[in-house]
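ok trying again, last paste got cut off:
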Amino acid sequence: MKDPTPATGKHTEGFQSLSPAVWRASTVLFDNVADFTTRKERLFDGYTYGITGTPTTRMLEERIARLEGASHCIVTPSGQSALCQVALALLGAGDHVLIADSAYGPLRSFASDYLQRFGVECETFDPSAGAELAERFKPNTKLIFLESPGSLTMEMQDLPAIVRAARAAGILTVLDNSWASPLGFQGVPAGIDIVVEAASKLLGGHSDLLLGAIATDSRALYEKLRTAQSVLGQAVGPDDCFLVLRGLDTLALRYAHQCASALAVAGRLASNTYVERVMFPPRPGDEGHARWAASFQGGGCVLSFVPRLASAAQVHQFFDALEVFRIGASWGGVHSLAGYYPEAEQARRAYCHIRQGIVRLAIGAEGAELLAADVEQALRSAAG
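nice, full thing came through this time. structure:
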């Protein structure tokens, strides 16, 4: 006699909820042996094993795909894992890849420390590049990794020009869109082949999970990426998927508030005696503003500035004096964060136009006046 304990659909009949169900499973059950032996045929459109997800996973993937204006989405354990999965699925020995010099540091480390060891030729390029990037193309160039704005120094690539050049050369483009989110820029409708989000940030919105997303309109690319997810074991827990689904319900409200606050804080800092330079492309007057305004909307919640502080001791005093901002990395959550990137970090980059130490602010849900006043008093305390 079969064990009667496995749940069946009758337990959900007549039940509805505003909250999505959390389906946990490592093993997927099949109605008959024929379905079991043909399960791999359903890798792309069904359920085969827990690694590729449960209905909770699919609900999140479908929702992110709609936000991105894409046909397909795959979620991964983190934004970094999403970037690495794209590279591992699409690159091989003898290929050439171009990576924006402002791209996420661990991606550049993965390229130099791992991809090159496996025979992939990796080069960085000026993160303010446009159509002239085509001069760096080679017959074996397969991918271009873009990040615009760069999440620390905020350089803007000319995305439309690069996309046109790459398409003409048959080269795939990959955009890390975590800074803007799909509310600020939909990369897939703009012609970018693959868009990656660190859903840990704005999509989740509460600094309590790690999750990445890969979106594309290409069925062929989707199948390669889904296969890589399965083979590499890139499973995502349903509870984290649930948290992102919940975060998406407030994304538009949080995004509007945080973008408006970031613009107000950037404006205040631009006129502050103790600030040498503000980097925030949505702010009129920023050197990347024209490119931002041509393709993006809404704004962003991450900005950087170069403080006029004479010593490391003054920098430490500035952070000690902050009362609202907490010290930490990432962005997109409801709590505001501040981090410091010493000049040595910028000096290690080949195309960084800023050589001083940089303060990065991630603007949360607190009021703009409170946040601006906190930075201003900390600067006065440190410089005074």
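cool. The longest strand covers residues 141-147. The two ends are 81 Å apart (CA to CA).
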